[in-house]
Amino acid sequence: MGDFKVIVRNNGPYRLEGEGITICDQEGRVYGLAGRTVVSLCRCGHSANKPFCDGTHNKVGFQSECQAHELPPPKPKA
User: Fold this and answer.
1) What is the C-alpha separation between 43 and 39, in angstroms, rounded?
2) Three-state SS string across 19-32, please?
3) Strands 38-41 and 4-8, how do they pair?
4) Judging by beta carbons within 10 Å of its beta carbon (0-12, 13-18, 19+), is residue 27 exposed, middle or buried?
5) What does the pLDDT look like over 17-42, one tens digit per residue?
6) 0.90 exceeded by the pTM?
């Protein structure tokens, strides 16, 4: 698996960029990405091609602006 980054696009999808992107369903089956180094994942829930973005967020007026921030440290497991 290569290095890649995830960009949270305001009012749009999660954009994955980089080499070696692997996306699996909950059963562990891998989606075939045909060598893509850029993939956008739906955040609005309206894509006809889930989990991938098809641009429907523009038609439905999806709004979500996110700014980067620090998460608190995870709580220790009991």
Assistant:
1) 13
2) CCCCCECCCCCECC
3) unpaired
4) exposed
5) 999 899 999 999 999 999 999 999 99
6) no
**Local confidence band at 1 (pLDDT 50, 70, 90 cut-offs):** very low
Single-letter amino acid, residue 54:
D
Contacts of 16 (CB under 8 A, 6+ apart): 4, 5, 6, 7, 23, 38, 39, 40, 41
CA 27 to centroid of chain Cα atoms: 18
Asked if residue 53 has pLDDT above 60, the reply is yes
Q: Phi first, then psi: what are they for 31, rounded to 5°?
A: -75, 135
> 44 and 50 in contact (C-beta within 8 Å)?
no
Closest CA to 4 of 29, 30, 23, 31: 23
Half-sphere exposure of 75 (CA within 13 A, CB side): 2
What pLDDT, on the 0 to 100 scale, is given for residue 4? 83
